[in-house]
Amino acid sequence: MPFAWLLYGAFAGGLGPDPAKTVILQTGEWALRFLLLTLAVSPLRRISGWYWPMRLRRMLGLFAFFYACVHLASFCQFYTGWDAGRLLEELAERPYITVGALAWVLLLPLAITSTHAMQRRLGRNWRRLHRLVYPALLLACVHLAWQVRSDYGEALVYGVFAALLLGYRWFAGRRSRQ
């Protein structure tokens, strides 16, 4: 729905005075939201006892990757014009872009290996590979926080949710090893 709403806004002229900025911001926020939702599934299952959210986890993760791809593609289209030299210049000059690009790079193998066939093919390594979601989430939060100019409130809220989810997983992992 968020993407459909964004498309509607683009065609209806409802994206405000700077549509490029709106598209980039909205797709980035939705990528982070879906990433957080993906990581919230396991704790929700453990706390509530419900199994049905587990069936949504892969889809949520792929939505996160989809929005991250649209976010990156929008940046490339609107700010670099798909010029590789300009893109490298932006990466070198703006560390928050570099961090965001690294987060996307970490999400790429997760999306590629999200199928049942890849789970079987990779075996135990699949789970190890998919732990890349944790540094990807941290990088995404840093990406958001670094680009904020004045109001850190929203970045702080995302950071707190990320810290809670990662902290829960860390404590749950420690308890299961004891």
Automatic annotation (TrEMBL):
Its cofactor is FMN; heme b. One of its GO terms (cellular component) is plasma membrane. The chain crosses the membrane at residues 30-47, 59-82, 94-112, 132-149, 155-172. Residues 27-141 form the Ferric oxidoreductase domain. It is found in: Cell membrane; Membrane. One of its GO terms (molecular function) is heme binding. InterPro entries: Fe3_Rdtase_TM_dom, MsrQ-like. Its main location: membrane. GO terms for biological process: protein repair. Keywords: Cell membrane, Electron transport, Flavoprotein, FMN, Heme, Iron, Membrane, Metal-binding, Transmembrane, Transmembrane helix, Transport. It is a multi-pass membrane protein. The keyword Transmembrane helix applies. Binds 1 FMN per subunit. Binds 1 heme b (iron(II)-protoporphyrin IX) group per subunit. It comes from the Bacteria. Part of the MsrPQ system that repairs oxidized periplasmic proteins containing methionine sulfoxide residues (Met-O), using respiratory chain electrons. Thus protects these proteins from oxidative-stress damage caused by reactive species of oxygen and chlorine generated by the host defense mechanisms. MsrPQ is essential for the maintenance of envelope integrity under bleach stress, rescuing a wide series of structurally unrelated periplasmic proteins from methionine oxidation. Belongs to the MsrQ family. Heterodimer of a catalytic subunit (MsrP) and a heme-binding subunit (MsrQ). This is Protein-methionine-sulfoxide reductase heme-binding subunit MsrQ. It comes from Mangrovimicrobium sediminis. The gene is msrQ.
